[in-house]
């Protein structure tokens, strides 16, 4: 679940953010006052909250405080003021990140994705399962820390989605990962039967990875179910 809540009373900015969030295939809701921000933020329906400091009634710090009393949902704060004090106060109160206005919407999207990736990793760590920084299957190695992928020592150029998709498949190497799981964890949205975007990303990733030396496919399609990253021998290694 990667639905985002935007709490901001700047309607023009909200319209701009809505455009970019749609382009990045995020689901989202928007509210324009602090009290409703707390109510919706505590609903459990959101993977992340984008919260403006300057709000009518309750300001953003009040909203953050109200949310933090009951929830650890990630919060990215926005403000028209770039003062270090505001930034420090927000982070000390439990904000996950802080972006001063004006900002490039692409930077906001990048920060949202980074926070969501971190939240997924933390959730996995909390489950007690290991989260290796590096993965290797056959001649492909993935470094989560540097976000570098190499095949036989040669670095590959992958998009952010392709990297996250490869990581998800390699972590489950030898086991099926459903389309629904990939759409939710990598694209950050709910799966629909007619959404073929994940298949396009898989196709691009296959092209960049190539086949194993024996001609076998690295990523195999399991018809009507999902995909599996084939192992030439061993399971993923750290």
Descriptive account of the structure:
The protein is of the alpha/beta class. A hairpin with a 2-residue loop joins strand 6 and strand 7. The protein contains 8 helices and 12 strands. It has 2 domains: 4-126, Response regulator (Rossmann fold, 3-Layer(aba) Sandwich), CATH 3.40.50; 134-229, Orthogonal Bundle (Arc Repressor Mutant, subunit A).
Q: What is this structure's SSE topology?
A:
Blueprint: E1 4-7, H1 11-23, E2 28-31, H2 34-41, E3 48-52, H3 60-68, E4 75-79, H4 84-92, E5 97-100, H5 105-126, E6 134-137, E7 140-143, E8 148-151, E9 154-156, H6 160-171, E10 176-178, H7 179-187, H8 197-209, E11 219-222, E12 226-229
Parallel strand pairs: 1-2, 1-3, 3-4, 4-5
Antiparallel strand pairs: 6-7, 7-8, 8-9, 10-12, 11-12
Helix pairs in contact: 2-3, 6-7, 6-8
Helix fraction bin = 25-40%
Order of helices and strands: EHEHEHEHEHEEEEHEHHEE
* 3D shape: elongated
Can you name the CATH architecture of the largest domain?
3-Layer(aba) Sandwich
What is the terminal-to-terminal distance?
28 Å
SS-based class? alpha/beta
Number of domains: 2
Number of strands: 12
Mean pLDDT: 84
For CATH, the homologous superfamily of the largest domain is named as Response regulator
Sheet with most strands: strand arrangement: 2-1-3-4-5
The CATH class label of the largest domain is: Alpha Beta
- Supply Rg: 20 Å
- CATH domain fold name of the largest domain: Rossmann fold
**Strand composition percent:** 15-25%
Largest sheet: 5 strands, parallel
